[in-house]
């Protein structure tokens, strides 16, 4: 069985044989299906990057994977033809580095974040992208597509700490997939509720999840794969997460 | 104005769907639709705006008109590359940002927004992403129309899929059936070919000097007639997923000339 993963740092891959692999959802899936799940997540990248990476892979490879796991990152992480990872944090860090070859790109990104990122467009852009992906998957009827929501619909002023207090049932998703399967709740909700570091730069968890969360997530994905049905949603119960 | 019919048609989009003067020109497709149905036709397109602007304007219009929804919505899909959106700035395409940024009649805050827009187009925009972004928005809009089952939605492709480094003169080299569209609508109707093709075909300003453009909605009266006729067909014989096409032979130079003489 060939399992591929696309997305951001929530689906960052560990190499085969890595000591931590058995404790991650990547490793648990691999062990369960007796394979190596190849996770191609790129830390800090956005959903358009993942979409194009996935599209390029599937449209240029003859042997399609059995399973694609798609982790949906934040829409305001920008897509750029030359700078693959372009988010607010990176642009801000590079703000004063005039020697960087991409200085103008980072400056432009900061201009975008200041004036355009908090409008109502990004949420709708994400919903539209997911809908397009949902239709796109119909081109690959032999592949099982499992969607992981990393985040959810947020207001312009909301930040990730909203997930510390939000009621599980009040989470507003961008899209309900019809042609493929999905796992809920968003991974950031699981991440914030178990082992979230005071300083994110000191993050030590693989894919921002504790071992407990890796197990819960792996089980939900296994359920999606073994009993795959288009439109299926596997919800990890709130009481298991808390 | 009073009309015989209570039918209401509302139109969204860019300069292809614009009413500049607030008056209805009888030789425009707006005027022809008004005359044909003897009803209110509102052209709400904003020159230089992009598809997201039209989407949010249409969405807000529908939210604000819950008790008096239109019978027909005509949606003109602007260029994929105009993909910036800001609620307070309608014209945020690359050329407008470049021009307005240098304008002496704007305040510092506006200048900053236009500068950010200009930098976005110079350093961040991606032709590949723009095209897929428009495709995805069209798909979303197509689903969105299902919330309004009593409204006939008619999509006008103002442009089509354009690859990087290709400009509008590409339309001079292609036949009307050779264009690649971002989406085929399933839940609403659409009209083909793209309006830019009609515009380039008849009366396009010499040497691309757009400052010399004097056609209403960038179309000659003959093209307005053809467009109005196909929209009338789309309204009268509306069916979700149906494509209404202006027959290529009608856009032959000879036929257009005959229409002018008539």
What is the CATH homologous superfamily assignment of the largest domain in chain B?
Answer: Response regulator
CATH topology of the largest domain in chain A: Rossmann fold
CATH topology of the largest domain in chain B: Rossmann fold
Order of neighbouring strands in the sheet with most strands of chain B = 2-1-3-4-5-6
CATH architecture descriptor name of the largest domain in chain B: 3-Layer(aba) Sandwich
Q: What series of H and E elements makes up the topology of chain A?
A: EHEHEHHHEHEHHEH
Structural class assignment of chain A: alpha/beta
Name the CATH superfamily classification of the largest domain in chain A.
SGNH hydrolase
Describe the structure.
The complex is a heterodimer of chains A (242) and B (262). Chain A is of the alpha/beta class. Chain A folds into two domains: 3-76 and 121-241, SGNH hydrolase (Rossmann fold); 82-116, no CATH class. Chain A is built from nine helices and six strands, in the order E-H-E-H-E-H-H-H-E-H-E-H-H-E-H. In chain A, strand 1 (3-6), helix 1 and strand 2 (38-39) form a beta-alpha-beta unit. In chain A, helix 1 packs across helix 8 (211-226). The radius of gyration of chain A is 18 Å and the shape is globular. With 262 residues, chain B is of the alpha/beta class. Chain B has helices at 29-37, 51-64, 94-102, 108-124, 127-144, 170-173, 195-201, 221-236, 253-261, and strands at 8-12, 40-43, 72-77, 152-157, 189-192, 243-245. Chain B has a six-stranded parallel beta sheet with strand order 2-1-3-4-5-6. In chain B, strand 1 (8-12), helix 1 (29-37) and strand 2 form a beta-alpha-beta unit. In chain B, helix 1 crosses helix 8 and helix 3 (94-102) runs antiparallel to helix 4 (108-124). Chain B starts with 7 loop residues before the first strand and ends with a helix.
């Amino acid at each position: 069985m060939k399992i591929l993963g696309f997305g951001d740092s929530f689906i960052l891959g560990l190499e085969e044989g890595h000591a931590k692999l058995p404790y991650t959802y990547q490793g648990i899936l691999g062990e369960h299906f007796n394979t190596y799940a190849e996770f191609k997540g790129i830390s800090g990248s956005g959903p358009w990057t993942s979409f194009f990476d996935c599209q390029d892979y599937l449209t240029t490879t003859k042997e399609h994977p059995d399973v694609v796991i798609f982790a949906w990152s934040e829409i305001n992480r920008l897509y750029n033809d030359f700078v693959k990872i372009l988010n607010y944090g990176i642009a801000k860090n590079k703000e004063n580095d005039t020697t960087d070859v991409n200085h103008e790109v980072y400056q432009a990104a900061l201009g975008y974040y200041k004036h355009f990122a908090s409008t109502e467009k990004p949420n709708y852009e994400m919903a539209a992208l997911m809908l397009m992906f949902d239709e796109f998957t119909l081109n690959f009827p032999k592949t099982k597509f499992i969607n992981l929501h990393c985040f959810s619909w947020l207001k312009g002023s909301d930040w990730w700490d909203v997930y510390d207090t939000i009621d599980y049932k009040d989470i507003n998703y961008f899209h309900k997939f019809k042609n493929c399967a999905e796992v809920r709740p968003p991974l950031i909700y699981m991440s914030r509720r178990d082992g979230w570091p005071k300083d994110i730069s000191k993050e030590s968890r693989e894919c921002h999840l504790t071992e407990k969360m890796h197990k819960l997530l792996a089980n939900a994905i296994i359920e999606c794969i073994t009993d795959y049905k288009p439109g299926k949603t596997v919800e990890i119960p709130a009481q298991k997460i808390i | 104005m009073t009309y015989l019919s209570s039918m209401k048609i509302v139109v969204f989009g860019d300069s292809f769907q614009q009413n500049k003067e607030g008056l209805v020109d009888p030789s425009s497709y707006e005027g022809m639709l008004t005359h044909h149905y003897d009803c209110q036709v509102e052209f709400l397109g904003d020159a230089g705006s992009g598809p997201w602007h039209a989407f949010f304007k249409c969405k807000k219009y529908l939210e604000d008109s819950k008790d008096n929804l239109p019978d027909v919505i005509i949606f003109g899909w602007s260029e994929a590359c105009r993909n910036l959106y800001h609620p307070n700035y309608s014209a945020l395409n690359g050329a407008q940002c470049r021009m307005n940024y240098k304008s002496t009649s704007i305040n510092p805050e506006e200048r900053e927004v236009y500068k950010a827009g200009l930098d976005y187009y110079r350093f961040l925009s991606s032709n590949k992403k723009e095209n897929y972004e428009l495709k995805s928005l069209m798909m979303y809009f197509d689903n969105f129309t299902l919330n309004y089952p009593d409204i006939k939605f008619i999509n006008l492709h103002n442009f089509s899929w354009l690859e990087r480094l290709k400009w509008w003169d590409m339309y001079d080299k292609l036949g009307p059936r050779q264009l690649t569209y971002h989406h085929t609508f399933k839940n609403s109707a659409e009209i083909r070919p793209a309006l830019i093709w009609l515009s380039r075909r008849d009366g396009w300003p010499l040497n691309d000097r757009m400052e010399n453009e004097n056609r209403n909605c960038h179309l000659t009266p003959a093209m307005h007639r053809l467009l109005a006729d196909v929209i009338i067909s789309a309204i009268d014989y509306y069916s979700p997923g149906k494509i209404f096409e202006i027959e290529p032979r009608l856009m032959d130079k000879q036929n257009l000339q005959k229409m002018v003489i008539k």
